[in-house]
Design a protein that fits this description.
single chain, 6-stranded mixed β-sheet, Aminopeptidase, 2 domains, Leucine Aminopeptidase, subunit E, domain 1, alpha/beta, 19 strands, 8-stranded mixed β-sheet
Amino acid sequence: MAIHVSMVNKLYSLCISVFGVYSDGTLSPSAAFWDKELKGALKSNLERLRHPFTELFETFHLTTGYKYYNDVLLICLGEPDKKYDNLELERLGAAIYEATAGLDTDVMVGIDSDDLHLVCDCAPPYIGFGALLKSWKFSKYKTKKDKKNILERLCVVTKNHEKSGEYFEELKKIADGIFLTRQVVSEPANVIYPKSLAKIALDELSPLGVEVEILGADEMKKLGMNSLLAVAQGSDNEPQLAILRWNGGHESQNPIAFVGKGVTFDSGGISLKPGENMHEMRYDMAGSGTVLGLMKAVALNKLPVNIVGVMAMVENMPSGSAQRPGDVVKSMSGQTIEVMNTDAEGRMVLADALWYTQDRFNPKIIIDLATLTGAIVVALGHEFAGLFSNCDELAKQIYQSSIRTGEKVWRMPMSENFDKGINSDVADMQNIAKSNVRGGSITAAQFLKRFINGKRWAHIDIAGVETCNNDLFICSNGATGFGVYLLYDFLRENYAGRAN
């Protein structure tokens, strides 16, 4: 659930009003304007408080004594000459939500672009976007309402409310995609399994004009997708491959393809994971969840580009029928894989999904997303996703989108020596590197690269960023929806409506 956010052109009474104040104690232009309506109550309170604001986004709740605008929240906007970018505007919106979330009343935000020294009208939409993203909570299974999060409505007051409303509408639809990703990633594995996730894709996307096709185990077997099927064979839950097509561009344009790892629960298989924190392995389908949310955001905003999304969904379980360390399987590409560790299953799922996507759709670009390795968390922590690519231009485009959206990526190296580390003595390759080779996230990317057949390709390892338990992201603890905003921006800025 999330709050309702809107752009309005006037301040309504009997709500809590939010105004900006600079660190030197002066009121922002919008606050000074409304202070006249409040008979100078804001200025007099500031003089009484003797300029208490020292930190950015510090807040102070006061009562004005004025009949209709009695409750006021002042928030520090920093130095009087500070200029905001869109990410700081989002953080401002998130800070306002955090300060008002426990209030059982509507909130009116009286902060406009002039207060932040911006010549464009982008401040109100991004403030609203930040508040909206921060407000989402996964509370489906809570039987009691959290009194700390009872705020239902937030309005941003701006003189250009119609234009701001149009701008905000695109951001809101991106948020809808992010929220869908957060929702499916947050669900437990007894609710989200391959068939149920495939049905969600069908139910959510078909009404928006996305063509949805679902392949089951029999169809995948006929295609020779033995690498993917080997991962699934220990589970009672049938694997699924969801193919999502948005035809928003010219019919002659080759699509851009996104492939998501969708391991709805990863026990490790026969190479069983430790029991501690195994419950978090329900998040191992976040790559497919991101593809799902991205397709929703694209379809809602009717982005003029052709896109194929592929969700490769399996459950990795130990049983008498599960694959074993030492097994050899033949992938759809014809290349053979020696299974050295059944917990290195995501790359085996993606191997067939990547090959299938290239073979069937001939995409212009192919990007995969996966919670692929713990090694990427060792390298980059929980702030950056690992970016691997065989194309400098593509990597640069994704990196630039990460700067604009705040969903950070860091490009990682690839090389022939790392590639040699996955050569097998009995097959074409093995699914983990030899024991004397380090750089586990890199060797995993080298494995995937062997299934890229001459296409421009990028692999984004989201293992450290698909969830959070701090304020690195504009979200509450839990699923972040990382990648939806990043890749939407990537499409919009580089490829929407452009010829091949």
